Amino acid sequence: MEKELLNQVAIVTGGNSGIGKAISFELADRGAHVIILARNKTRNEETKKEINSNGGKVETYSVDVSNSSEVNKAVDEVYSKYGKIDILVSNAGNATPLKYSTEMPLEDFDAVIKTHLFGAFNCVKACGDRMRKRKYGRIVLISSVAGYHGFAGQMNYAVAKHGLVGMGYSLAKEFDGSGVTVNIVQPGIIPTPMCKGVINVSKDNLPEARVGKPEDIAYAVAFFCSPRAGFMNGTPLVIDGGLVIETSVDTSVKKLLSKA
Q: EC number(s) (predicted)?
């Protein structure tokens, strides 16, 4: 694989599990020095060992991204050590058990908003001006197709993911012309530990007859992080196997056509 990110410093939040872990592996495979910010120390160490044993370079910090003090401390240490931050992938996320909005505890709404939106805000604030000063940077926000059409029972998640799209558009305008790009990736249904017990969809109901893989997302994120993506800014990229364009009417028509 071409080492197009050789010696670049890449911060990946939530980079020890699911999509984030796949992103960490992909960036490391392309030569980046990956810095994982995530809460779970055990998973951090496990991911670090896996990537290092695969020839990659990774460091981990046990950080709650919704806590600005923890984020600032970690980013300050990274910047002090390397003198730069080339890439920020804001991927840290969480989900709560399915509940109608009228029955959802405020704590559930608050927890999801803080991790997704406060987390992204804290990380961009800690990294953005440092990127601008060097006239180079790649920021990728991991949203979701939930930001397009919502999820019944997960209003808090849909609000957070839609908020990341608005954040991405706004940041792209603020950084325009600075050498720093901001793009948004919106995955479809990806089986990850976070989704276990929350989303259970038959692959027969999906356009491609399969759910996505974390690697499907990681490849796209790696492109957005590369120097070659310099002309892409404020771009929302949906990676869902056609889920957002599929409707119940389409599904019914296809079943009729298959019987014709």
A: 1.1.1.100
Alpha helices in 7-150 (DSSP H): 18-29, 41-53, 68-82, 106-113, 119-134, 146-149
The domains of the chain are located at 9-259
In the chain, the amino acid numbered 54 is N
Of 3.40.718.10, 3.40.50.360, 3.40.50.300, 3.40.50.720, the CATH number of 9-259 is 3.40.50.720
Question: Does the pLDDT at position 199 exceed 60?
Answer: no
Where does the pLDDT of residue 212 fall: very low under 50, low under 70, confident under 90, or very high at 90 and above? confident
Distance CA 140, CA 13 (A): 11
What are the catalytic residues? 157
Written as six digits, the tokens of 76 are 């300050």
What is the pTM (predicted TM-score) of this model?
0.90
For 26, 132, 226, the CA distances from 149, given in Å and listed in that order, are: 29, 34, 30
